[in-house]
Design brief:
There is one protein chain. This protein has 423 residues and is α/β, with parallel strands linked by helices. It has 2 domains: 9-64 and 379-420, Roll (Urease, subunit C, domain 1), CATH 2.30.40; 66-371, TIM Barrel (Alpha-Beta Barrel), CATH 3.20.20.140. 34% of the residues lie in helices and 19% in strands. The chain contains 13 helices and 18 strands. It has helices at 80-85, 88-104, 118-125, 171-184, 212-224, 236-245, 258-267, 277-287, 289-293, 299-323, 344-353, 357-363, 366-371; strands at residues 9-12, 15-16, 28-33, 36-42, 53-56, 60-64, 66-71, 107-112, 133-136, 140-141, 190-193, 229-233, 249-252, 270-272, 326-327, 388-392, 408-413, 416-420. It has a 6-stranded parallel beta sheet. It has a 5-stranded mixed beta sheet with strand order 2-6-16-17-18, with no helix packed on it. Strands 4-3-1-5 form a 4-stranded mixed beta sheet, with no helix packed on it. It is globular, with a radius of gyration of 21 Å. The model has no long low-confidence stretch (mean pLDDT 96).
């Protein structure tokens, strides 16, 4: 694959959203050179370099690339029969289409929560594979019989991604060993499951998994390598011990309570709520009977139960926002749903959390960059990496615009244009 060359670009005439929450700038200019933002502001106040490739974005909106803090970007067949017939290399190669789709819809950086190893990250960095910049967890660590354990009642474990190590650990010493293993394998952060989940066969989404001591061991071991821990926790019985253990980010966290909100504010815990997944799953299975049938874990019943409870929980979600919980954008995009449709999550953040469209965009740009501790990302200000979207119309007036792929006119990552349908 030939990587598009870096050039100096001047995007002129658009409405600029900087990602920091400042008022948008109309009739703006954005100068990008050597992969970074050089200047951003009103066009009449910026000198356009003579060698710049000028791009007229009048009537369009320019904003930072989206950072999705929760994806599973690698492929596996939802149909278990097909999964068993696919070679591991086929699954790896099919993953490239998922990564390409993710970038094309506007996600320029993604935190992969289990499935991608260091080879995926390196292939994207070197331009052999098209996709968002990846931060990887390698696997999501699970107790025996937990959310990441692929054991089935037939008495066998079926690896979901055969190129990865086993994610199963039990007890403090075993958790320590596995955390050290994934960090050795190049993990940017550690992912561990503190509750069951929707897609796992042998557990319930609201049961607690791992003890506080085991979870704290993961946090301590990661910290020794200057890494953070993200925790999968859906029900309150797993959320509480995860917060007690001092995790960096709470993934899903749908059934937090007021005490949890207070703890998260006090500790600075990040919340990645992944709100769209369950509602969209409920809707999707109504339209696609075959997709609904391709399940092992009674996902339909779990989704219906969780969806009803989530809607009742919306006032508390809004309370979390008001009290100042750190909230970052994430989707839980996977083989299951949301590939190439990541930005629909913004609409749910507006509708369910009570965010303004600007707050939702900030949660997916500069705030998400804070969550993943990458200060060079997430804003269109001089010195930051040039991850840029050009979108039709004004998403501040209608955040739903970003749900439509046709509205994403240009995607730039590291100062390189990867998608351009402006003409």
């Amino acid at each position: 694959m030939n990587v598009p060359p870096q050039s100096t670009y001047a995007l002129i005439g658009g409405r600029l959203i900087d990602g920091l929450g400042e008022d948008p700038i109309n009739h703006s200019a954005l100068i990008v050179s050597s992969g970074k933002v050089v200047a951003a502001g009103r066009a009449d106040a910026i000198v356009i370099p003579r060698d710049a490739i000028k791009i007229d974005v009048t009537g369009l909106t320019v904003l930072p690339g989206i950072i999705d803090c929760h994806v599973h970007g690698t492929y596996r067949a939802r149909d278990m029969r097909q999964h068993l017939l696919n070679a591991p290399t086929y699954n790896v190669l099919r993953s490239t289409a998922i990564l390409d789709e993710t970038l094309a819809c506007g996600v320029t950086t993604a935190r992969d929560m289990g499935g991608a190893d260091a080879g995926f990250r390196q292939a994207i960095e070197e331009g052999f594979v098209v996709g968002p910049r990846l931060l990887i967890a390698v696997v999501m660590i699970s107790q025996t019989g937990g959310h990441g354990d692929a054991w089935l009642p037939a008495g066998i474990r079926i690896q979901k991604r055969a190129w990865l190590p086993s994610p199963v650990a039990d007890g403090v010493d075993d958790v320590r060993r596995l955390v050290r293993h994934v960090l050795m394998a190049g993990a940017d952060f550690v992912k561990i499951c503190a509750t069951g989940g929707i897609t796992s066969v042998t557990d319930s989404w609201d049961e607690a998994q791992f003890t506080v001591a085991e979870l704290r061991t993961a946090v301590t071991e990661a910290a020794m390598r200057r890494k953070r821990v993200a925790v999968h926790a859906e029900g309150i019985e797993g959320i509480r011990p995860a917060l007690e253990a001092g995790v960096h980010s709470l993934e899903h966290g749908w059934f937090i309570d007021e005490e949890c909100i207070d703890t998260m504010v006090r500790q600075g815990t990040w919340w990645v709520p992944t709100l769209a997944l369950v509602p969209l799953s409920v809707e999707h299975r109504k339209k696609n009977a075959a997709w609904n049938a391709q399940q092992l874990a009674k996902e339909d019943a779990k989704d219906a139960e969780i969806y009803a409870k989530m809607q009742a929980h919306i006032p508390l979600y809004r309370e979390a926002l008001k009290r100042g919980v750190n909230i970052a954008f994430g989707t839980d995009q996977s083989h299951r749903l949301l590939v190439g449709e990541n930005l629909v999550e913004l609409q749910f953040m507006v509708d369910w959390l009570g965010m303004s469209p600007m707050e939702a965009i900030v949660s997916a740009t500069s705030r998400a960059a804070e969550c993943i501790e990458r200060p060079e990302l997430g804003a269109l200000v001089p010195g930051r990496l040039a991850d840029v979207l050009v979108v039709a119309d004004d998403p501040l007036a209608n955040i739903k615009l970003l749900n439509e792929r046709a509205h994403i006119k240009m995607v730039m990552k590291d100062g390189r244009i990867w998608k351009n349908i402006l003409q």
